[in-house]
Amino acid sequence: MTLEKSGPFVSPAHGETEFSSVGSMQTDNELIKKVSGRLVWFLFLLYVFAFLDRINIGFAGLTMSQDLGLTATMFGLATTFFYIAYIAFSIPSNIALGRFGARRWLSMIMIVWGLASTATLFAHDAQSLYVLRTLVGIAEAGFIPGILLYLTFWFPQACRGRTNALFMIATPVTTAVGSVISGYILEMNGLLGLKGWQWLFLLEGLPSVVLGIAVLFYLDDNPMKAKWLTREEKARLTAMLAAEQSQTDVPEKRKGSLISELCQPVIIKFALAYLCLVNTLSLIGIWIPQIVKSFNAASSNVTIGLLAAIPQICTIIGMIWWSARSDRRRERKWHIAIPMLFAAVGWLLTAYAENPIIRLAGIAMASTGGFCAMAIFWTAPDKVLSSRSKPVGIALINAVGNIGSALSAFVVGYLRDTTNSFSSGLLYAVVVLVLGTLFIAAIPMKSTTDKKPACTS
After folding, report:
1. Closest to 319 measured CA to CA, from 355, 276, 367, 371
2. Helix 170-186 to helix 25-68 angle, to the nearest 10 degrees?
3. 176, 394 Cβ separation under 8 angstroms
4. pLDDT tens digits along 109-142
5. Entry pTM
6. How many of the other CB atoms lie within 10 Å of CB of 297?
7. N or C end of the chain, less CB within 10 A?
8. pLDDT tens digits for 206-215?
């Protein structure tokens, strides 16, 4: 996969982009390709290590729980503390990004969470683990909402589905590659006196510090500050985004406070729908290694890592295809709802099928559906947010959504301890996915019906 080729593309059927005039369409198309080639691969890399530092505790738990004397409930509670801190600091962090600029703020939080994640190797009981995971949550809180806001500074809305997907496939890529690598790192148990899980936090935490420093030199806060764009390109890209904002920014024309704008029923529905979806995303990131191990308790850590990687390969393929389809058809609502139902069916298979192959296929369905829905979901909220409310609104929806992560980590752990099975926890995920689908169905999202071609590959 060559990320430099990402971004909006010329429609094979019409030969032009949706935001171009006939005389400048080729130049505009090349401009967005240039922006995509500069930014997407780097943001992808940042997200890889952000997500790795979030989910590596899932693999660490294969051996760390026994070393620290953790029950499944205690282990899940560590992730709950992470998300409580994440939720509490998401909005303040996005406000700070707007004040200090993306370059400086993203750099700072990456360095801090990299150090905090690395320091998790010093955990010696449940309480110390709770404190360290809370620190990681505080630092990482601003990353995802910050990047989602940052993408709106550079890419037209019609291209956001594919752009989001190319950025967010870092999640399944990290889960797949991280699963294999983490399985082998755990085999380093005893080297230089460190446990395998301690090596895991050390080797997967420090790269975030290095990348945090690189952010200072590579990213620009907005197109007008980009030295790699010509004066003409800066002006055209800024005008393109401003024109799009003026056409869709209905809430900004209304009188009222920022709070009243954020309390619109449509924003509340988006937040609740994302809360339901994130239960599944968190379950995938934290519990998959142990769910896979439950298929066969005798499996080695390396085998578990290899098996856990298979669903993520399906997810990568699905995200790229589904996001391109959504951009091409310029439809969002059902491109979010259908994958959520697909994921729900996957969890049912994982919970109740007897054949391990079918159960693994169920995990693949749940992962593919969940992450396809997430990529398209984040193309929709900014249509109902004004420019003044966008930083807080995106962070608010993300924060409310991640209550689902806190709930999922605790509820699945508690049900696992209570029933000695993951089936009841997976049924919980099915119920909230169906509920989330109903929230999405209740949100008015109009498909674009004009004859201009969409951003396609």
Report:
1. 371
2. 30
3. no
4. 899 989 988 998 898 888 898 999 899 888 888 8
5. 0.68
6. 6
7. N
8. 999 999 999 9
